[in-house]
Amino acid sequence: MCSRCGRAFPVKDEVPILVPPGTSMDGARWEGKEAEIAEWVPRHFAKPQWSIRSSLERDFITAAQATQGIVLDVASGPAGSFCVQVMSDGRTDRVLAMSDLGTPVMLAWRKHLRQVGWGDRCSNLVFDARRMPFRDGSVATIASALGFGNITRNKLAYADAARVLPPGGRMLDVVRLYEEGGPTQRHLVKVGHAGAAWSDYAALLEGLGFAIQRSEVACTGRGKSDPGDGLPLGDEVWEHRMVFAVRR
């Protein structure tokens, strides 16, 4: 029961479904794929034992591991972002909250985390990241590995991330960006998407009260990087950039 609005939300297999009526479900693409998700989750849970490819990724994980309190992973998806790596040190003064708008994804993760004995140190929540169910300044660290990029009108999600982080709270983000002045940048700016070009993304974070401490390119490419969303629109260069930011 929400004390502010008085609305009751269901809990299914230990997973709170915190999605108000009327929420746009444009980012929830997992219904009907329960069998595939049940296979993907254990595979991605095991994969991190050998998947760290760079010192930059290790720094990203180490920064999240330094958290005392809640680490909120936004739009974890079946791959689970860097959640497994963050929690693999066994510390108990940190709680990982995995989240997604897709209920089947969080149900599968919750089941597997219980099976491997991680149930007490991890939680799983279904919610819209554009309306996070957290009090102002209540989350110590927000992390996401390309998760914000899967949220339509994700400028709203970044604004809510700024709301739930206290001064000194950290945001660790992997974002996909495109060429300055290209058709993809123009399109994404028009539809309210933060991950257009670096100038747009950096200006948004700074306007929301973040200080960007570090930003490095993790990988680059040209042409279609994700056939599922058809981006970039043209034969453009794209990059995945890791960003370390602190809430002022």
Describe this protein's structure.
There is one protein chain. Helix content is 30%, strand content 25%. The protein is α/β, with parallel strands linked by helices. The protein has a single domain (11-18, 33-247), classed as Rossmann fold. A nine-stranded mixed β-sheet has the order 1-2-5-4-3-6-7-9-8.
Structural key phrases:
248 residues; alpha/beta; Rossmann fold; nine-stranded mixed beta sheet; 9 strands; globular
Task: Report a brief summary of the structure.
With 248 residues, this protein is of the alpha/beta class. It is built from eight helices and nine strands. The chain has a nine-stranded mixed beta sheet with strand order 1-2-5-4-3-6-7-9-8.
What is Rg? 17 Å
Please state the average pLDDT score: 91
- Catalogue the unreliable spans: none
| Count of distinct structural domains | 1
Structural class: alpha/beta
Q: CATH superfamily, called what?
A: Vaccinia Virus protein VP39
Strand content: 25-35%
The CATH class turns out to be Alpha Beta
Helix percentage: 25-40%
CATH architecture: 3-Layer(aba) Sandwich
Form type: globular
Question: How many runs of DSSP E, i.e. beta strands?
Answer: 9
Strand order of the biggest β-sheet: 1-2-5-4-3-6-7-9-8
N-to-C span: 32 Å
Q: How many alpha or pi helices?
A: 8
CATH topology: Rossmann fold
Helix/strand order, N-terminal first: EEHHHEHEHEEHEHHEE
Topology diagram in text:
Blueprint lengths: L10 E2 L2 E4 L15 H13 L1 H4 L3 H11 L3 E5 L9 H5 L6 E7 L2 H13 L6 E6 L13 E5 L9 H10 L5 E9 L4 H8 L7 H10 L2 E13 L14 E11 L1
Parallel strand pairs: 2-5, 3-4, 3-6, 4-5, 6-7
Antiparallel strand pairs: 1-2, 7-9, 8-9
Helix pairs in contact: 1-5
